[in-house]
């Protein structure tokens, strides 16, 4: 296994060897461990030597990333799977992710790789055994695989890409030179400093807006709603293509007033044409909610209708017929979707029937 210690970016040195990470809004203050930045240090790390995400450690007053070149998943996916419905419909992306997360969502569907952060944060000595399961890869190899597989872009997904910014930035810079698109699937909890680093290289983002209730963010993912909303507005003000996703969890994120609040925020602060994706919760594959209730079709339909009544032009749901792109003017089906297979009838992003702009980025 390669030595994956890479000095982190975006941190501040404090007194007595402590550092403050400025990667996300947790702003972790991390105390120093004594030793050499290599694999032998793991048994001696303690909770206070690790960031909340479980992927950054302070050794002798220097903050190191532990995710550089470490890939847990690598696959060719349709862009619709991200989900992105208005960004190069029908094309493929090379998707990859690392490990760890700066959230602690008990409903997480990718918890086997994202929630290693919870284990590492409490038992840093477990890092050795965790890292042995992951593959080593270089930024150039990832970009080459995207080219070889005729992918229009690379998706930074499966776990939160923000916490692997050092590796992700190197991949994005090479991808940009190769005219490969960069697509982020993110919880939107990155800092202002991180935003300034990543925005020049990103072409599209899907942001998971989990709720419109700050108490939910504090208790569920352990984050701040205000930071996610602020970043959504900044994304929309940029040239980055934006789509928003909300997971409908019974008794948690299916409240009608809360959903109306999200839809209103998208309409008034982003735009009526920003796509909103509504996904159903599958308890059997979740991290800590296996005994929870599965999202019903009725709940998904109700959320869909709330979005439409609030005036959003493009609302999508994980139900047959509610995944189609329908012209908001004449109601003609312009893109028909069935399990990530699509049929396109639009004409260069306009409605084939009335010419209405469908706001498709290509």
Explain what the structure shows.
The chain is an alpha/beta fold. Among the domains are: 6-65, no CATH class; 209-323, TIM Barrel (Alpha-Beta Barrel), CATH 3.20.20. It contains 10 helices and 19 strands. Strands 8-9-11-12-13-14-15-16 form an 8-stranded mixed β-sheet. It has a 3-stranded antiparallel β-sheet with strand order 1-6-5, with no helix packed on it. α4 packs across α5 (165-177). It is globular. It starts with 5 loop residues before the first strand and ends in an 18-residue tail after the last strand.
Layout: helices, strands, pairs:
Layout: E1 6-7, E2 11-13, E3 19-21, E4 29-30, E5 56-59, E6 62-65, E7 70-71, E8 73-78, E9 92-97, H1 111-114, H2 116-122, H3 127-131, E10 135-136, H4 139-148, E11 153-156, H5 165-177, E12 181-186, H6 192-198, E13 204-208, H7 214-219, H8 225-237, E14 241-248, H9 256-270, E15 276-280, H10 297-309, E16 315-317, E17 325-326, E18 333-338, E19 341-344
Parallel strand pairs: 9-11, 11-12, 12-13, 13-14, 14-15, 15-16
Antiparallel strand pairs: 1-6, 2-3, 3-4, 5-6, 7-10, 8-9, 17-18, 18-19
């Amino acid at each position: 296994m390669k030595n994956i210690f890479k000095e982190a970016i975006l941190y501040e040195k404090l007194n007595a060897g402590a550092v403050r990470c400025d990667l996300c809004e947790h702003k972790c203050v991390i105390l120093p461990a004594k030793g050499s930045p290599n694999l032998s240090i793991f048994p001696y790390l303690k909770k206070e030597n690790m960031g909340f995400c479980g992927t950054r450690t302070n050794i002798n007053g220097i903050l190191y990333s532990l995710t550089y070149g470490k890939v847990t998943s690598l696959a060719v996916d349709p862009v619709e799977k991200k989900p992105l419905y208005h960004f190069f419909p029908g094309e493929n992306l090379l998707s990859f992710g690392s490990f760890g997360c700066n959230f602690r969502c008990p409903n997480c569907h990718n918890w086997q790789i994202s929630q290693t952060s919870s284990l590492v944060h409490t038992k840093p000595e477990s890092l050795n055994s965790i890292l042995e399961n992951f593959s080593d890869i270089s930024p150039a190899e990832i970009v080459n695989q995207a080219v070889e597989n005729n992918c229009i872009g690379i998706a930074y997904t499966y776990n939160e890409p923000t916490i692997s910014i050092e590796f992700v930035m190197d991949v994005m810079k090479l991808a940009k030179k190769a005219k490969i698109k960069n697509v982020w699937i993110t919880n939107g909890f990155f800092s202002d400093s991180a935003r300034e680093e990543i925005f020049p290289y990103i072409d599209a983002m899907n942001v998971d807006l989990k709720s419109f209730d700050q108490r939910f963010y504090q208790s569920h993912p352990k984050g701040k709603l205000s930071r996610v909303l602020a970043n959504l507005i900044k994304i929309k003000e940029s040239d980055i293509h934006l789509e928003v996703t909300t997971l409908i969890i019974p008794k948690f994120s299916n409240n009608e007033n809360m959903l109306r609040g999200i839809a209103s925020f998208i309409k008034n602060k982003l735009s009526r044409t920003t796509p909103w994706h509504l996904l159903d919760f599958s308890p059997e594959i979740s991290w800590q909610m296996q005994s929870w209730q599965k999202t019903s079709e009725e709940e998904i339909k109700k959320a869909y209708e709330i979005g439409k009544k609030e005036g959003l032009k493009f609302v999508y749901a994980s139900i047959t017929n509610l995944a189609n792109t329908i012209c908001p003017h004449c109601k003609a089906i312009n893109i028909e979707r069935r399990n990530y297979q699509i049929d396109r009838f639009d004409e260069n992003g306009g409605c084939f029937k009335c010419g209405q702009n469908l706001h498709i980025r290509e």
